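Section 5.1 Outputs to date
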Amino acid sequence: MIQNFDFHIHTSNSDGDYNIDEIIKKITENNIEYFAITDHDNIDSIEQLKDKKLNYITGIEFSGRFKKYNMHILGYYLDGDLSKVKLLCDKIKELRKLRLYGLLDDLNKKFNISFEQEEIDDIVSKCNTLGRPHIGKLLIKHKYVDNMNDAFLKYLNYLHTDIYYRMDARDIISAIHSAGGIVILAHPKKIEKKYNILIDEIIEDLIEIGIDGIEIYNSMHYNEDSERYLHIANKYNLYTSGGSDYHGIYSKPNVRIGYLNKEDLPIIDVQSLTFINKKTEP
């Protein structure tokens, strides 16, 4: 069931399919009253939305790593000094660009597929958060595949480059906190599936380095997952948040805006997400 909030949405500023104005239109059409834009590793949306009269929370989704675990880290309420956040974003942007060229070179070597340099330069100039989905869109455009899922299955999963762009989770947390923000662990189910663990096994270590909360609702989660994450949040007095991880019809066609898990959730009171009350705290 669609909710009246969604605090995990991506635009074309990163790897989403729609620009800010198009996303706002979709938010309005779907009666979503409260939302956050959490583009990967950039905060362009904050500037673009600063003068709009909306129930909007500033946000970002950083690409991080802690110990052996790759993870995504959400930052909300970035309303203070953004200098450390911007510094990390600039560093990741340059590494992502170099990584994209490396992946394109590997695509050519392994599959004899290449694209016009002008086309690649256009993508690089327009996007701050380059990744495999951008190559996937080129593969779809030139009819090597029909959809993003096929792009990953046939090509993208086999591409390799030694260029690494993820930042240390502790540096990400420090940057978010320096901007007055709170730190939320994104879609914990993804970590559990990738590393065959339960998030319980590492949550205390994450809290120790500064994690403030956990995303209990997400399009990757089943009801039982959300209940388990809520239990963890209550046990450790963590903030709770929720969002779809919406990207659009090409990047994540099965993820719909405002739909927060894999099952039919009842309507949830947005105030039940404890991170929403952060601004009212003393």
